[in-house]
Write a structure and sequence with these properties.
The protein is 36% helix and 27% strand. The protein is of the alpha/beta class and 371 residues long. Helix 2 (51-65) packs across helix 3, helix 6 (137-146) packs across helix 10 and helix 11 (247-260) crosses helix 12 (331-340). It is globular and about 70 Å long. It has helices at residues 4-12, 51-65, 67-83, 87-104, 117-122, 137-146, 148-151, 153-167, 183-188, 200-207, 247-260, 331-340, and strands at 16-18, 27-33, 39-46, 172-175, 193-197, 216-219, 231-236, 261-272, 285-291, 294-301, 306-315, 318-327, 343-349, 363-370. It has twelve helices and 14 strands. It binds S-adenosylmethionine (SAM). Residues 124-125, 135, 176-178, 181-182, 196-199, 202, 221-223, 237-238, 240, 243-244 line the site of S-adenosylmethionine. S-adenosylmethionine (SAM) is lined by residues 124-125, 135, 176-178, 181-182, 196-199, 202, 221-223, 237-238, 240, 243-244.
Length: 371
């Protein structure tokens, strides 16, 4: 990097400009800008052996080794280039894809591709590699098959009916839209829908499905990413508030929901009631299922509210672990988060049909309204 200033000076003479927001991990970033303001080239100067250099080479090797990754990466570039000039959205989506690919290839990213300190503070699950197995390529490839029960029309339709009714004639935004289990049928009803998710692998599955073109799909973290415009409904289903593994992250998610809502708009959360009543004093593990397809356990830490889902799938005679890290929250804690974010609880039901919530309800659908 000692020679970088001289290189930058020479490049400035042929229309390159420094773009310091792109400097990270030992890289100096420049753009070549034509007289009409259009950017014709991006150029990175990197020190041999620096974090950016190593991450970049590892991504190149992953692309060489994996034709499917090549086509996803190319598809992402073309799609985002064709859609808009939003450099920030492009960078966010590309960073997620590269990070997931590196982790899946067993390379821990060190440069700007590693989790940011903000993401770490908010407890965003972004270590989405094959080993971590959260919502990276390996999980995305089997997500719909492993969650077949959740795709059943008896589960999906009441949720979609309720969400369509709550959206009214306004726009709706799904946090953590995943492969579109709820978003696709809701958009099919004519609700104008946007969806955020921070797994490019999950979003890729969504984009492949018929009807996805109706949805404005945005790569990003539901705790921090803003989608332009105002919404009458933001919703977050299938326990996914717990995927933010810190209280700060969950509060930020409520605040982000409120920031998208018009006054009187609603934020809907569907989540399990933590099974603390089933835990005898001192016990930490609860079985969830045991069937020919696999085994699942939940590990509770009642001090930190950490909840680890330990799922094991039996596939072709082999055991495939698929762990997930969460932070559980009692419904009353979620209500307080809503108040912190300027919303109040309007309804708490045991299910989407408005069933009464009781001491025995295993899950809740909670509707918060913005002042
Ligand atoms: C259990 S799936 C639910 C997907 C979909 N809503 C459904 O009901 O099938 C959880 C989703 O949350 C996404 N996710 C987890 N943490 C996230 C975060 N901090 N920001 C955005 N998406 C996140 C994952 O990538 C995954 O797609």
């Amino acid at each position: 990097m000692a020679t970088a200033p001289a290189c930058v000076a020479a490049l400035t003479g042929i229309d390159y400009r420094r773009a310091p927001e792109g400097d990270f991990g030992g890289r100096v970033f420049l753009r070549r800008v034509a007289a009409d303001g259009r950017v014709s080239h991006h150029l990175s100067l990197a020190e041999h052996g620096a974090a950016y250099w190593l991450d970049h080479l590892a991504f190149r090797e992953a692309l060489r080794a994996n034709p499917e990754l090549r086509s996803r990466s190319g598809g992402l570039k073309r799609r985002l280039a064709a859609k808009h000039d939003d450099v920030e959205a492009y960078t966010r989506a590309k960073t997620l894809l590269v990070r997931e690919a590196l982790l899946a290839a067993g390379h821990t990213p060190r440069s700007g591709l590693a989790a940011s300190s903000d993401e770490r503070a908010l407890g965003t699950l972004c270590g989405m590699g094959a080993d971590e197995g959260y919502f990276g390529e390996r999980v995305a490839a089997v997500y719909d098959a492993h969650s077949t029960g959740m795709f059943d029309s008896s589960v999906v339709e009441p949720a979609v009916d309720r969400l369509a009714q709550l959206a009214g004639d306004g726009r709706a935004l799904e946090f953590a839209i995943g492969t579109g289990r709820i978003g696709l049928p809701l958009a099919e009803r004519g609700v104008a829908l946007a969806g955020i998710d921070n797994s490019e692998a999950m979003l890729e599955r969504l984009r492949e499905k018929p009807g996805a073109e109706r949805i404005e799909v945005v790569s990003g973290d539901m705790a921090t990413t803003r989608v332009a415009g105002e919404f009458s409904l933001v919703y977050l289903v299938f326990n996914t508030i717990f995927n933010l593994t810190t209280q700060d992250g969950q509060v930020a998610c409520f605040e982000n929901a409120a920031a998208h809502l018009r006054s009187g708009g609603r934020f809907v959360i569907e989540a399990r009631v933590p099974e603390l009543q089933r835990l005898p004093l001192g016990q930490t593990v609860l079985p969830w299922r045991a069937d020919p397809g696999g085994l699942s356990f939940y590990v509770y830490d009642v001090v930190t509210q950490r909840l680890s889902g330990q799922h094991f799938y039996l596939e072709e005679g082999r055991v495939q672990p698929s762990p997930i890290e969460m932070r559980y929250a009692w419904p009353a804690e979620l209500d307080l988060m809503a108040r912190v974010a300027g919303m109040r609880l309007e309804h708490r039901w045991a299910g989407w049909r408005g069933e009464p919530f009781t001491a025995l309800s295993p899950a809740h659908v909670s509707v918060y309204v913005k002042a």
